[in-house]
Design brief:
Elements (H helix, E strand, L loop, with lengths): L9 H11 L3 E5 H10 L5 E5 L6 H9 L3 E4 L2 H9 L7 E4 L5 H10 L3 E3 L2 H9 L6 E6 L21 E2 L3 H10 L4 E5 L8 H18 L8 E3 L18 H19 L4 E4 L3 H4 L3 E13 L2 E6 L8 H5 L5 E4 L9 E7 L11 E2 L3 E2 L2 E4 L6 E5 L20 E5 L2 E6 L4 H5 L7
Parallel strand pairs: 1-19, 2-3, 2-10, 3-4, 4-5, 5-6, 6-7, 6-8, 8-9, 9-10, 12-14
Antiparallel strand pairs: 1-11, 11-12, 11-18, 13-18, 14-17, 15-16, 19-20
Length: 416
């Protein structure tokens, strides 16, 4: 069974922990580059930076020719700091706050609107920028209910029944709609893909006369990734692209000119590029259950606690050897929370995992953590954010330092 999707191995991970401490994030730039090239058949690859927003990663990705999606004022600032031109950025959100409006106005950032109110707020702020419209087609899908972004229980996008009114209002206010965007959730399969394609074709066909400046059909993101080592597979991107390309050709014929395809991957580009390396700090029995307690918690990797997400786990023994023995173990973190468990299923059901027999001081590696790993880290329990390290051309470079206590406290008012 292949343990690693990255090009570094146990020796390099152990050396990185020795140099930078534990826990830490280790990214492989080669994996990111490969996944970007996988997507090259699409006219525009727009990275959903919320998956992993480190400006050093963004800068490397910009050099590979991608555009960028920003969902907050802070993500606009990150994209600009990483060297993206304003017209390479698109702001996609359900609302504007004042900081986002100020930046959009200052830099003329294109906007993907998700509600009728956003049109009015752009007008009131004196902003005229190219628009995309995010469409909620009335259905959704995802690997968890928490990543389902379509249907009437989702907050995202303009409801399909309101779309014509919104498009007419945009025209009335003098906005050009250049893109129609549809994303129903993360982890969608081919059955749901066919539903999205059908909904997009119906939408463009019915609105063609109202969107004369339409240039781009955005297929969203949500490309699935295999996290389980006994189910190793990759989505057939050629098949995925061909389905959308055939629809694009039909839509181009419908409007009478060439339409461009855009994809918005986040997890697909980053998930397999990173591991979270941690140290086992306690091994103990609780009744019949064996626990490995590590120095990383859901303050570092939220996905298992939040979604019940599965991540492959391996052990690196500190003496470099292995007894070959295995045990059923529960992997948990240091937080003052019962939910701080890395081997759990959705709804918080704690399960054990067959792992090598380990002891205090051994390293435990949580795999495929590049997407929504470091990005979702927090200071809960006043824990420090772990460093991020990039593996490039055979060496590790620190791209985010470990947070210090003074940095954690720096914005809090001290009356003394």
């Amino acid at each position: 069974m292949q343990e690693y999707n990255v090009s570094f191995g146990e020796k390099e991970i152990a050396l990185a922990v020795e140099r930078f401490g534990s826990p830490l994030w280790l990214y492989d730039l080669n994996v990111i580059e490969k996944r970007i090239w996988d997507m090259r058949s699409f006219g525009v690859v727009r990275y959903a930076q919320k998956a992993a927003p480190n400006i050093n990663l963004l800068s490397k990705m910009r050099e590979l020719g991608i555009d960028i999606d920003a969902v907050s004022a802070g993500e606009i600032v990150r994209a600009l700091r990483a060297g993206f031109a304003p017209d390479q950025i698109r702001y996609t959100a359900d609302i504007f706050d004042s900081a986002a409006l100020d930046l959009i106005k200052e830099f003329s950032i294109p906007v993907n609107i998700g509600s009728p109110d956003m049109l009015i707020q752009l007008q009131e702020a004196g902003i005229k920028v190219p628009l995309a419209v995010r469409i909620n087609p009335g259905f959704g899908h995802g690997h968890s209910n928490k990543v389902n972004t379509g249907g009437e229980f989702s907050k995202h996008g303009v409801w399909h029944g309101e779309l014509e009114n919104v498009v007419k209002k945009a025209a009335e206010l003098g906005f050009d709609i250049e893109c129609l965007h549809m994303h129903i959730g993360s982890g969608s399969d081919y059955i749901h893909l066919s539903q999205v394609v059908s909904a997009m074709e119906h939408t463009v066909g019915s609105l063609a006369a109202l969107v004369p400046k339409l240039k781009i059909i955005s297929v969203g993101g949500g490309l699935p990734v295999s996290y389980k080592r006994d189910e190793v597979w990759h989505i057939d991107l050629e098949k995925y692209y061909n389905i959308w390309d055939a629809a694009r050709k039909r839509l181009s014929n419908c409007v009478g000119y060439y339409l461009q395809l855009e994809a918005e991957p986040g997890r697909y580009l980053l998930a397999e590029s990173c591991v979270l390396a941690t140290e086992i700090r306690a091994v103990k029995k609780m009744g019949k259950n064996l626990f490995y307690l590590i120095d990383a918690g859901f303050t570092d990797l939220m996905r298992p606690a939040f979604y019940g997400a599965y991540h492959h786990i391996s052990v690196i023994h500190k003496n470099g050897g292995t007894s070959g023995e295995e045990a059923d173990a529960i992997v948990a973190g240091p937080l003052c929370e019962s939910g701080d468990v890395f081997t759990q299923e959705e709804s918080g059901i704690v399960v054990s995992r067959k792992l090598p027999l380990a002891q205090v001081g051994d390293l435990l590696v949580i795999h495929d953590t590049g997407a929504y790993g470091a990005a979702m880290s927090s200071n809960y329990n006043s824990r420090l954010l772990a460093p991020e390290i990039l593996w490039e051309k055979g060496k590790f470079t620190q791209i985010r330092r470990r947070q210090t206590f003074e940095q954690m406290l720096s914005n809090e008012i001290d009356d003394e």
